[in-house]
Design a protein that fits this description.
alpha+beta, about 20% helix, 2 helices, 3-stranded mixed beta sheet, Microbial ribonuclease fold, DPH_MB_dom, metal-binding, iron, metal ion binding
Length: about 80
Amino acid sequence: MSIYDEIEIEDLTFDKTLQIYHYPCPCGDRFEIAIDDLRDGQDIAVCPSCSLMIKVIFDKDDLPKPEEPDQTQGQQQVIAAAA
């Protein structure tokens, strides 16, 4: 496995909707890695268009916390169904 570069996580962009970090690749596409993969200890982001890979330098404790399901929304649905 050949690593193109090592990049600090602060230099990657986080897409909250897709829950992925991405970083521009020299080929014109971008390296991508899911936040769940980072939480599982994986640190290699891959470009889907070419064979390049980067190593993401990060501290697992500094990753955004998983969002909890919205409890109030579920309660509102139960109350509406009971009415």
